[in-house]
Design a protein that fits this description.
By secondary structure, the protein is of the alpha+beta class. Among the domains are: 201 residues, Rossmann fold, CATH 3.40.50.300; 115 residues, no CATH class. The strands form 4 sheets. It has a 6-stranded antiparallel β-sheet with strand order 2-1-4-5-6-7. Helix 15 links the parallel strand 14 and strand 15. Helix 17 packs across helix 18.
């Protein structure tokens, strides 16, 4: 829902702030008062291109800001999250257009691109008038509208999962075929490298272990001599450290019997003796394990040299050698069985094309069934809305691929172009006069007709439509009397599911408003300024009466206004 619209220094508008409400918001005013300027400003806020001409004379820049309630709008929240923009249940969208030509965009005070503003706008608002946000004039939205009526999104999701798998398989096949010659050319090289690495077959971190072992082996004589001397000094020699310290401990023990303050030192000397015993045991075991075998040294040196050569050739570390072996091993196996892998992939692609086809056919059948309902209900609704002789058609077509390289799915053993929505191409066609052939809606309908066609479609889609805000600028073009009342009731009904903002000059529509705003043009000094204000109860009656009788409000017009507003 659009809660607040702020417009500053835009065309004839100096500074206005409008607080819109839920339901049907009606805007009225005399021709030239500035109603269309409001819609233009809203279009700018939703991502339309800006011109410096919109900046009010005497000002440096125009500012348009909208505060939207986005509670529960998961698509908007997901888009904000993807772009690292903080969000809560309120979204502030702001555009600034400067005379200098700079165009700044903000979402929750975070600078963003115009494209992101437009993406957000497309998820929030459908603006009906001569604006880009008129989604009915975008052929790609027609399939989305039909699917909303069909409400078969679980089937579409299943198809899209399978379609994604198909694309991944095709990508894998393309990459393999691209690498075919390269892999075959390198087959002999890979075979040589695999043999060279496998002859050594190094273990992870083996080079570090060998370096440590060699350091010990190359110093074995020195280690043996030093270890023997240490063991002799601590334990084996006459007058060894252990013997002498045992005597010291015995003397400390005798002294402790005279003075107990020596007891602590007795305990400490026992700990020292235990440590000396532990060290002597370790040194004895170590020296007994020392091998003075020159052959072992040469063997370790040779293996370390071989490993270092592999490291030098394949990346500089043993880790890179092992990783390279794994990579070329896969490439070599692929090269040996390339045709087999290609055949396997092609079989899986063929199977997935058929699986996609089964799901897409089910979706297509449902669309064709629903399209009959949409045709009937749109034509009935348009008749009520003043387009009596309409012929509305939902055209569903399927096309064969132009070449084998183009992506396709298989339906009943036939190949069809496809995309994430299936294999249907859907476009709305219409004729609004009897005897005319139907033509693409995007090319033939006038602004007022498009708004009424959209109103008819939205009435069918009301409960499932995902766009929370609908804005109608020209919905009453060429409409009056009984038809105008039906248009008003259609808008009122639609306002149960969406926030509606509509500009009108018809009392039959204005009288049904939940909130009524009047746009006025005033002369201030030598300038003309547009204002907008929300009307209170009595003012609403007068404004509707003015739409009935003109500037001079008669008693009959007042009574007529009250009747339209159900106030009698």
């Amino acid at each position: 829902m659009l809660r607040t619209l702020l417009i500053k220094d835009y065309a004839l508008i100096e500074n206005i702030q409008v607080e819109f409400g839920k339901g049907l918001n009606i805007i009225t005013g005399e021709t030239g008062a500035g109603k269309s300027i409001l819609i233009d400003a809203l279009g700018l806020l939703l991502g339309e291109r800006a011109s410096t001409e919109v900046v009010r004379k005497g000002s440096e820049k125009s500012i348009i800001e909208g505060i939207f309630d986005i509670e529960g709008n998961k698509k908007v929240q997901s888009l904000l999250t993807d772009n690292e923009i903080e969000f809560n249940d309120e979204l502030i969208v702001r555009r600034e257009v400067s005379l200098k030509g700079t165009n700044r965009c903000f979402l929750n005070d975070t600078p963003v691109t115009l494209n992101l503003i437009k993406e957000i706008g497309d998820l929030l608002v459908d603006l009906h008038g001569q604006h880009e946000h008129q989604s009915l004039l975008k052929v790609e939205t027609h399939i989305e509208m039909l699917d909303e009526v069909a409400n078969h999104f679980e089937n579409i999701e299943s198809y899209q999962t399978k379609f994604s798998k198909l694309n991944n398989l095709l990508r894998e096949l393309k990459e393999l075929l691209k690498k075919e010659n390269e892999i075959k050319e390198k087959k002999d090289l890979y075979e040589f490298q695999i043999k060279e690495i496998d002859e050594i077959s190094p273990d992870p971190d083996e080079d570090i272990k060998l370096e440590n072992e060699l350091k010990i082996l190359e110093n074995s004589e020195k280690l043996l001599k030093s270890a023997s001397e240490i063991y002799g000094s601590i334990y084996e020699n006459e007058d060894s450290i252990l013997d002498r310290f045992s005597e010291i401990k015995n003397k400390l023990n005798e002294l402790s019997k005279i003075d107990q303050s020596f007891l602590e030192k007795v305990n400490e000397s026992e700990s020292i003796i235990a440590i000396l015993n532990d060290v002597s045991t370790f040194v004895r075991t170590y020296k007994d394990r020392i091998d003075l075998d020159p052959e072992s040294v040469e063997k370790s040196r040779f293996r370390l040299g071989s490993i270092n050569l592999l490291k030098k050739k394949y990346g500089g570390s043993l880790k890179s050698v092992i990783e390279h072996r794994g990579k070329i091993g896969k490439e070599f196996e692929l090269a040996k069985n390339f045709s087999g892998k290609i055949s396997e992939l092609n079989r899986e692609i063929e199977s997935t094309r058929k699986e996609c086809g089964i799901l897409a056919k089910k979706i297509s059948a449902n669309r064709k069934l629903v399209s009959k309902k949409v045709k009937k209900e749109v034509e009935e609704s348009l008749k009520n809305l003043g387009i009596a002789d309409s012929n509305f058609e939902v055209r569903i077509e399927n096309q064969s691929p132009d070449s084998p390289e183009e992506n396709y799915i298989i339906v009943d053993n036939k190949n069809f172009r496809c995309d994430p929505n299936g294999y249907d191409k859907i476009e709305f066609f219409i004729s609004t006069n009897i005897g005319e052939d139907t033509k693409p809606l995007v090319k033939v309908a006038s602004g007022g007709e498009v708004s009424r066609i959209m109103l008819a479609l939205k009435s069918i889609l009301a409960k499932s439509d995902k766009l929370p805000i609908l804005i109608f600028d020209e919905i009453d073009t060429g409409v009056s009397g009984r038809i105008a009342q039906k248009v008003g009731h259609a808008l009122k009904s639609l306002a149960s599911f969406h926030q509606i903002i509509a500009i009108t000059h018809l009392p039959q529509i204005a009288g049904l408003s939940d909130y009524h705003f009047a746009v006025e043009k005033r002369k201030m000094g030598d300038r003309v300024v547009s204002f907008i204000r929300m009307l209170k109860n009595e003012e609403r009656v007068n404004e509707v009466a003015k739409l009935i009788s003109g500037e001079k409000i008669t008693e009959a017009a007042l009574n007529g206004a009250k009747e339209l507003m159900n106030l009698n």
